[in-house]
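hiii so um. not sure if this is the right channel but i have a protein structure encoded as tokens and i wanna go backwards to a sequence. like what aa goes where. can anyone help
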């Protein structure tokens, strides 16, 4: 099969921003997603890091084309959508410090420790280990019970400042109530 004749489309991404790669009516070949700056493919052959995109090329397109090529050459087979979709995490006890893809380096351990301490101060409950600053991290707002993916790079304050009192989409308890319920904001006033 020639990849030039095999067109694909990207499906709706899940909460981890995994894009299903589809051909035909609804045949799922796998999924592609970004992990830090690299792109990962998830297929019948498992997870594979294909690296960073070529200059001037979108990473999602390069990763999807790689999946299609793997299928066209017979190295992978179709999978179910459920097999490449990240399940919403549940909280079944203590959360590990680091996400399983995060190497156990002193720098990552230090960053994770600081992030988890800041989440506690600002009343967030993480459902997974620290995935780094630019990867989705499932969390629960302790003020209203909202759950969803957050990015640490959007949650931490900048230049020593506190994070924004805007907590998440869908509304929360309001800026004044956030300031009232989180002591760090009270000290700022």
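sure thing!! here u go:
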């Amino acid at each position: 099969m020639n990849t030039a004749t095999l067109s694909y489309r990207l499906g709706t991404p899940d909460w981890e921003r995994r894009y299903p790669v589809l051909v035909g009516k609804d045949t799922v070949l796998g999924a592609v997603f970004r992990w830090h700056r690299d792109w990962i493919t998830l297929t019948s052959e498992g997870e594979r890091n294909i690296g960073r995109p070529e200059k001037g090329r979108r990473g999602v397109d390069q990763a999807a084309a790689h999946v299609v090529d793997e299928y066209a050459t017979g190295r992978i087979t179709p999978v179910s959508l459920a097999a490449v979709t990240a399940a919403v995490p549940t909280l079944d006890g203590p959360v590990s410090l680091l996400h399983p893809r995060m190497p156990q380096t002193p720098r990552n351990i230090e960053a994770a420790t600081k992030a988890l301490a800041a989440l506690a101060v600002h009343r967030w409950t993480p459902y997974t280990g620290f995935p780094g600053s630019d990867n989705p991290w499932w969390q629960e707002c302790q003020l209203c019970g909202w759950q969803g993916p957050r990015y640490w790079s959007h949650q931490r304050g900048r230049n020593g400042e506190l994070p924004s009192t805007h907590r998440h989409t869908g509304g929360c308890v309001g800026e004044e109530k956030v300031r009232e319920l989180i002591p760090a904001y009270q000290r700022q006033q």
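oh and Residues 106-188 form one domain.
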